[in-house]
TrEMBL record:
Lineage of source species: Bacteria, Pseudomonadati, Bacteroidota, Chitinophagia, Chitinophagales
Localization, UniProt: Cell membrane
UniProt-recorded name of the protein: Cyclic peptide export ABC transporter
Domain of life, per lineage: Bacteria
ABC transporter domain segment(s): 326-540
Length: 542
């Protein structure tokens, strides 16, 4: 996606408007310039006695065209900004888990602020167009008055522009560095916010995150930004003082070189003064264009990364699918295969049957969570086949089937809004019954604003609420990652000896990571992972 393509997709009429505005503005500029010069030289106007009317007409035409265009631009600007923001979020929500992990949250925030920068594109385009048209008209007028003098001034201005662009290129590189620093800064900020408790209780950590990361980063960014500002100031001053140089050439050199008359000289000087404002506008807006290009490049890069393994756009939730068996045949998944130390999960032949309670066990780093990620299609398998009721599933179908699984992660996040559209009303008897069963009676309270359950609960209580909500989703498969880890002994006992059997009686299939060997007998099967492989798959017959 480049800048021009961005416009094409947002508004087909943009270019038509741009051409109309360009024409009106060149007509107005040239007209006004000629009127002034004719008045200065005491010559006859083309419009004779309607001179004043023509002058006023030009200004009115310019006023209304610009007004109409500005309104159109305001609309277009907002459309571009908000739809870009939404399209970034759209890509994130359809991205694969791996590309999401690689991206990191801080880059998402940076991309959203980049989208805001892009919202200025139409305004900048119009300003540059106006300035360029005025410049071209003025130069054309100079050529008409004296060809050689016009050429001399054009060469002079091109030379000065090249110096300006060369310096601007150096500034662009510095700006890129500032943006990289900003990404790192957002990352440190995220760590400060997410890990606030750990940072608050350790002075060393507290000092280090501030001194070694945030402070150093901001200092570097400040130095670079100050350098950029200094270079901009020098550039702008060169721009302004170049005019004196050009005026000097006109006043002192042109009469000697080309024998131009006093009236021609006056016309030249007026025209040059007329060009000053558009050129300074160009000087102001070219750096903005640079910033926009950088923002666009970064959004494009993020876009490319998120496209990897992206899911097809989700339009409506698929119906839950019950099943008899889910089978993995020669399935393997590897984290970042390019890296030296990479972990591979391998499932030569593994089957889950409806109604089973399967415990997934094994040491730290043996591959239990990776297995859950593959099972729930968070990670896309590299090789092998997945069969649902002896029907092979594509990656997309597997992703859809994950909708039939209610998952409680070890670091489960309880949403503040009721995205699952649960019936949380007091009249819901089944819900009240489950609140009772999961020992949440008298613990849960509702947020007045959202009507959702408050998430200000202890870790164990949060997990019990998450389990209850997972059950409310009414899906055939329940996946639990170390669910019992935060429970007190009584709730843990209830989980293994009462709640899991209850779920089984309800016809649910349960896949649960567990470290509680005292309760392994509750499961129908215990599968043990080691180095990414299932080293034992024990069926327990009670
Ligand atoms: N995002 C990742 N990128 C690269 N390697 C990873 C990633 N996540 C996990 N791993 C590696 O994969 C291996 C298996 O990790 P996994 O989280 O599946 O283990 P686990 O059995 O769930 O461990 P634990 O009991 O500690 O939770 C580990 O060696 C880990 O270093």
């Amino acid at each position: 996606m480049n800048l021009l393509k961005l416009f094409q997709t947002r508004s087909r009429t943009f270019y038509v408007f741009l051409v109309i505005l360009g024409m009106v503005s060149s007509l107005t500029n040239l007209g006004i310039l000629m009127q002034i010069n004719i008045a200065l030289g005491g010559g006859a106007s083309y419009f004779g006695k309607y001179n004043v009317l023509a002058f006023a007409g030009l200004i009115v035409l310019s006023f209304f065209t610009t007004l109409y265009f500005q309104k159109y631009m305001a609309e277009l600007t907002n459309n571009i900004m908000y739809s870009l923001e939404l399209s970034i979020i759209e890509k994130v929500r359809n991205a694969s888990y791996e590309s999401f992990e690689k991206m990191g949250g801080s880059r998402l925030y940076a991309a959203v602020s980049d989208a805001r920068v892009l919202g200025r594109v139409p305004e900048i385009f119009v300003a540059i167009l106006n300035a360029a048209v005025t410049l071209i008209c003025s130069l054309g007028y100079l050529y008409w008055i004296s060809l050689w003098a016009g050429i001399t001034i054009t060469l002079l201005m091109v030379g000065l522009l090249l110096v300006y662009l060369y310096r601007n290129n150096i500034i662009e590189k510095d700006l890129n560095k500032v943006r990289d620093l900003q990404d790192n800064y957002y990352n440190s900020l995220r760590e400060l916010l997410v890990g606030f408790k750990q940072i608050r209780v350790s002075t060393l950590r507290n000092l280090n995150i501030f001194n070694k990361f945030i402070f150093t980063n901001r200092n570097k960014a400040k130095e670079l930004s100050m350098g950029v500002s200094r270079k901009y100031i020098v550039n702008e001053l060169i721009g302004v003082y170049s005019w004196y140089f050009v005026l000097g050439v006109i006043i002192f050199l042109l009469p000697v070189l080309f024998h131009i008359s006093l009236i021609q000289l006056a016309v030249f000087i007026t025209t040059i003064l007329f060009m000053m404002s558009p050129v300074s506008q160009l000087i102001v807006y070219i750096p903005s264009l640079t910033g926009i290009r950088i923002a666009l490049e970064r959004i494009n890069r993020l876009d490319g990364e998120l496209k990897v393994d992206a899911l097809p756009a989700i339009i409506a939730p698929p119906p839950f699918r019950d099943f008899t068996s889910l089978r993995f045949e020669n399935v393997s998944y590897m984290y970042s295969p390019d890296e030296k130390r990479s972990f591979e999960l391998h499932l030569p032949d593994f089957r889950i049957s409806k109604g089973e309670i399967i415990f997934v066990v094994g040491g730290n780093g043996s591959g239990k969570t990776t297995f859950i990620n593959v099972l729930t299609a968070l990670c896309r398998v590299d090789t092998g086949k997945v069969w649902l009721d002896e029907q092979e599933l594509s990656w997309e179908e597997m992703s859809l089937f994950s909708n039939s699984m209610a998952v409680v992660y070890s670091d489960h996040y309880l949403f503040t809004e009721n995205y699952d559209e649960h019936d949380l009303s007091d009249e819901n008897e089944l819900l009240q019954e489950r609140i009772e069963i999961f020992n949440l009676n008298g613990i849960l309270s509702k947020e007045a604003k959202t009507g959702n359950f408050s998430t200000k609960l202890s870790k164990g209580q949060q997990k019990r609420l998450a389990l209850m909500l997972a059950l409310t989703e009414d899906k055939p498969i329940i996946v639990l990652d170390e669910w019992a880890a935060e429970q007190d002994p009584e709730n843990r006992r209830l989980f293994y000896l009462e709640w899991l059997p209850m779920l089984k009686r309800m016809g649910k299939t349960i896949i649960a990571i567990s470290h509680d060997d005292d309760f392994f007998h509750v499961a129908d099967r215990v599968i043990r992972f080691n180095y990414g492989k299932i080293v034992s798959d024990t069926e327990l017959v009670l």
